[in-house]
Structure formats: structure tokens, C-alpha cells
Amino acid sequence: MDIIPDFLQRPIVRPASSQSSFDNEPVAGPSNGHYIANGHTETNGFRVSIRRVEPPGRGMYAGSSVDREEFVRLVLQGLRDVGYVEAAATLEAESGYTLESSSVADFRECVLNGQWGRVESSLTSLGVVMEEDLRVSPAYVRFLVCEQKFLEYLENRQLDVALEVLREEITPLQQEPQRTYALSGLMMCDPKDLHTRAQWDGAAGRSREVLLNRLQRYIPSSIMIPPRRLETLLNQARQLQSNACIYHTSTRPFSLYIDHQCDRTEFPLHTTMILADHQDEIWHLAWSNDGTRLATASRDQSVIIWRIGVSADPNDCALEQRLREHANAVSFVAWSPDNNVLLTAAEATIKMWNPKTGLCIKSILGHEDTVCSLVWRRDGSGFISGGMDQKILFWDKDGKQLDSLEQIPIRMSSVAISPDERWLVVAGMLANPTKTLVRAENGNGAQNPALTGKQTRFTVYDLRTKEEHASIDMTGEITSVTISSDSNFGLINHSPDGVMLWSLEEPKLVRKYAGQKQTKHVIRSCFGGPGENFVLSGSEDTNVYVWHKESGTPLEILQGHGQGSVNAVAWNPCQEAMFATCSDDHTVRIWGKDPPGFITSITESTTEDIPPQVSTLSRDPPTLRWDDAREMFL
């Protein structure tokens, strides 16, 4: 919901003499480079003389590129936001600048008091901005005002007046026809039902404040400063420093007094646990949404659910469930948003599990070839599956098929939904009878799913309409797609030796991350860190690679896994410095920060693709085999 600064809700306190008391005072002669005039303000009922200070030029001071008037007005707004009204009044008197004109104050008062006739006339006098990117007109701005007025009349059961507003004011504007139709359907609602159906909290709620914020978008910012603008600028400065901090993993706020920089020791460089209960290669893993459990899928036809942090120690661990009912290697796992259902895929079969009891709820058949991905809808109402049979199937939460997209010209290797559910992204090999799925041998003699052929594609669909938004053809296998939390970017693993960041709105390559090895195996990368500042990927050379997302700078090559590929990486969604990796060596590694007092042993990398300042790290804790011991080795 939009935020209105506190000062919008209370009268503005101005100096007793306001502008007229000093704006026309004769300007005194220069004194120490400043021009001084006399003004007055009132503090606790006493009239205090305030000298107006007028430095030369328009900058804050000599050599400054910051406009002095903008700076002072932002400070005035910030002072009023936190309640320093008298300090703001003194600054107005001393600087000669006011936060806003009386017409802006009157406009705000009219909106918050529901004086709709005066609101419309005030908008005209203030000058509504028709910004091209906002695609609005004066009629649309008037529509917003009339909509609020209509809803308030309905709430007060003044149905005749409300109907007149709908017919005589809203409909002729010809704005938002679907919304206008929906408004007409509210005529017979009682107030409670009105609030629910209109998603509106009433005149006594914050609806007028929300309207004020929406209207303010179309008023020149020089006339009416956006709400809490100083706080916005300071938060932007913080975000810029977070993005520039290459090892930023902390969610704690940091000081504005100095530039921020995280120490490398804050990054999870250390293997804190090795989980070794699988009997074969581990192909996929996924954290529960609360970050307390980890599901791992293996070629040994089983899924293990691990409980991480079973005690106060976040590095404690327990094997919670072992799911064994699949008849084939398990290639994918996915947690429901409430963590009450776990989906697993093995060849063309999908199973639904209760992760607390370990019982299979349902086996689902619908695909005719290997299922490559399972993705839950954001609200938990259902999920989507994609397979190499060129099908995307839509299921409800109970595993009943609702819809499908078939004959997609891609034998899919990965499917993803953006968090805002705007985009559906599919990737894989272009369908061709001469190109088939094979099992490529790896260096250990084991087999891992891989694709032959080199003509691949990733396609972005509008999830709502299921229509194609854009397609990009590529040469080289695409093995995974992960979408950023802001829904703007897709992270793609692509052979040979490539991890790429693509924008989705207008698909274009934003950045490449070099160094990891990928020629024939399915490797899955991920975003990492509380602000997704990192990109992490496994590799066929047994290592884990870490890059800074914004700059593409390679940060770490983490050693530890045994022979074979590191197949997948997953960052814990609730722990700021913890991630997990799985490998062909039959193990899962949990990575965390160095314990206090630990001295890291570092050797410089000799890898040609990685700068020499990037370190490699190898260090093993005791290995946990749950079948051999029921507690963590110390």
C-alpha cells in the first residue's frame, strides 16, 4: 500500500509572519560571502527574529553541483516527516524557501477531507503532468478522483448520488472500461461487501491517502515533492553501496556515516557439513521455503529430506525422511509454498509427498517423456510441469490436470515461472527427430542426463494468456533457467562453459559469467545472497564457482567435492550466509561462514579463466552418514 508521510495528516506550521514577513525585506550588504535579511518565526509562543541567509549562486556551497533549493526543500520535508515542525519553520525563515505553496497545501487538505469539487479545480491550477511513459491523460486523473467519490457515496448509501456520478462523470470519461463496468456492479453492495469487492478500505481508512499518492504522480515534482523523498534517496544510496560491496551477505542495516564494505569472512566459504547417505549421483536439491529442510534427489531412486539446524546450532543436522517409491533416478524436487507438499520427478512420473510423514500422497501420470521441471504457483493453488515430450501441464494442488500447452517446439530441459507470475520461461533443445536424449558418460564412468544436438532455444511466454512473448535461438545446450526475485532476469546455464544473465521483458543478454566447466552434463546455477548479489554454479571440474552478479567479477572457486560434476547449487532462502551443493560424488555439502577464530588456508588459483586474486578453498569437516551414526560427528 502507498505510504503517505506523517506531515500530510496534520496542519503545516508556518512562521507567524510567513513569507510576507521577510520576503520583501531589503537585502543587507554582503557579509562573509552571504547575503542576510531579517525574518521572524515563533517558538513556544515567543516571536524570535531569524536572519535570512542567502549564499551566492544556486549550489549548496561553492563548487557543489547540488541545487540549494532542492536540498533545503528535501530537508524541510524530512524534518516534518519525523515531527520536527518548529525546526522546519526556522529553516524556512532562515533559507527563504518553503516546502510547498499554499495551493499545494490546499490541494492536500481537499483530498484528505473529501472536498472533491475543489480537488478537480486544484488539479487544473497545479498543472497535471502528462508523462509519456505513464500513458495518462487529464481524463484518467479525473477518473481516479471520481472513482473515490463514487465509492464514498456508495459507502454512505447515497445511491442516487452515486449513480449520478457513475453516469454523468465516470462513464463519459471513457477510462478503464473494465473497471467502470466493475464499479457498476457494486451498486447493491452493503458497506462491508463493498470494501471487500472493491479492495478499498473506506473513507475512514487510508483510501484518501492512497488516492493522494496516486494523484501526486501526475503533479510536477518541483511543485509537490514525492512522499518521504529524502528517505528514498538515502535508501537508494544504501542499495548502491550494497550492490558495490562484492561480498555483501548481511541483512542488517549499515551506517550512512561511512561507505559500506563487507569482509570476505562474512561469505560462506567453509564446508560446515557433508551429507553422505545417498548411494549414487545427486542431481538436484531444493530448500524448503522456511529454510529449515533440504530435499535432495539422487540417481539411486531416492529423495532424502534433511532437517538443518535441528537445535540452536544452525550447523546441526538430521535425516528426517527417506522417500524410496520411485522406480527410476529422481531428477527434480519442488516444495509447495507452505512446505506441506513435496513434488518429485523421475522419468515421466511425478509424485506428491507429505514431507512430515514421508508418505506418498499421489502418483501423477501425464507426461510421455522425462519431466525436467516442477514449479509451484505462488499462492499454492497448483503447479506446472514441463517435459521432454514438448508439453507443459498445469495441475491443481491435488494433482488434477487443469490445462496444457502442447507441441511446444522444444524438448524442454528447464521450466521456470517468474515470482510475479507474469512470465513462463521454457528452455531446451529444438525438437528434431534426429536429436534424441542420451546418457552422456562423465569422467567417473557414471551417467548423467545430457542433450545431443546444438540447436537450442529459450522462450518467454505470458503466463496469463499463454501466448509467446519472445524466443531466443542459441547454439549449445541449455540445462537450467532460474528467474530473479524481482522477475526481471533469467539466469541460464549454457554449454560450453557458460552462465548467462538475460533480461526477460525485452530478451537480451545482460552479462556472462566465465570460468566454470560445462560440456555435456546438466548443471544448475542459482542467485545467492539476501539481495541476490551473487551468482553460483556447479561445474564439471568438481568445483563451485561464485561471481558478483552486477559486475560479473569472479569471486571464489570453492573446492571440496570429489570426482565428477557438481550438479546443482541452492542458496538457503532464510539464512543470509548458507548454501548447499550436490555432486556426482554422492554427497551434499552445506557451506557457511568461518567459525570464530578459524584461519582459512588459501591457495591462489591457476585456472586460466579466473584472475589470480580469486582464491580456491579446500577444507573438509567430518562426514555425516546417517545410516552409520544418528548424531553429528564432533
Automatic annotation (TrEMBL):
SMART domains: WD40. GO terms for biological process: proteasome-mediated ubiquitin-dependent protein catabolic process. GO terms for cellular component: GID complex. WD repeats lie at residues 275-308, 323-363, 364-396, 566-591. PROSITE patterns: LISH, WD_REPEATS_2, WD_REPEATS_REGION. Keywords: Repeat, WD repeat. Gene3D superfamilies: YVTN repeat-like/Quinoprotein amine dehydrogenase. It holds the Pfam family LisH_WDR26. Transmembrane segments: none annotated. The keyword Hydrolase does not apply. This is WD40 repeat-like protein.
